């Protein structure tokens, strides 16, 4: 355990900065993923390693009305996506705040996640992310 400036005990659960440095040291690190939009149209997208899937949708200019309304602050469920069960199992467990927002999501499935919480990794090459029809 560490203490901060104020003498309070702190604990590091997950150091995102190290994770991002590990995967984003080369700005040319991209993989291909597929996004199925609400109209069931498949869109091929380039995903930068270390970014989150909400940013992938935005960076690829995929127009999904209302998607990511809270800009990734875990204050809504508009970036709700569905993954296949094999890929879903390989992701880290969602934090409580994500589960709280998923409870409000339309079309919730056992393999639902919020795109803003999915960090792109090289192993996600060719994964499919389905945006449920609202």
UniProtKB/TrEMBL annotation:
Residues 41-120 form the 2Fe-2S ferredoxin-type domain. Keywords: 2Fe-2S, Iron, Iron-sulfur, Metal-binding. Its cofactor is [2Fe-2S] cluster. GO terms for biological process: P450-containing electron transport chain. It holds the Pfam family Fer2. InterPro entries: 2Fe-2S_ferredoxin-like_sf (IPR036010), 2Fe-2S_ferredoxin-type (IPR001041), Adrenodoxin-like (IPR001055), Adrenodoxin_Fe-S_BS (IPR018298), Beta-grasp_dom_sf (IPR012675). GO terms for molecular function: 2 iron, 2 sulfur cluster binding; electron transfer activity; metal ion binding. The keyword Iron-sulfur applies. One of its GO terms (cellular component) is mitochondrion. This is 2Fe-2S ferredoxin-type domain-containing protein. It comes from Adineta steineri.
């Amino acid at each position: 355990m560490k203490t901060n400036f104020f003498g309070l005990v702190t604990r590091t659960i997950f150091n995102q900065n190290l994770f991002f440095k590990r995967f984003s040291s080369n700005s040319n690190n991209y993989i291909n993923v597929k996004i199925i939009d609400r109209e069931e149209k498949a869109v091929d997208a380039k995903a930068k390693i270390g970014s989150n899937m909400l940013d992938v949708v935005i960076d690829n200019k995929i127009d999904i009305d209302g998607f990511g309304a809270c800009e990734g602050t875990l204050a809504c469920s508009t970036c709700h996506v569905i993954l296949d069960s094999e890929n879903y199992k390989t992701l880290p467990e969602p934090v409580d705040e994500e589960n709280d927002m998923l409870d409000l999501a339309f079309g919730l499935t056992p393999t639902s996640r919020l795109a803003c919480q999915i960090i792109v990794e090289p192993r996600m090459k060719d994964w499919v992310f389905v945006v449920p029809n609202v």
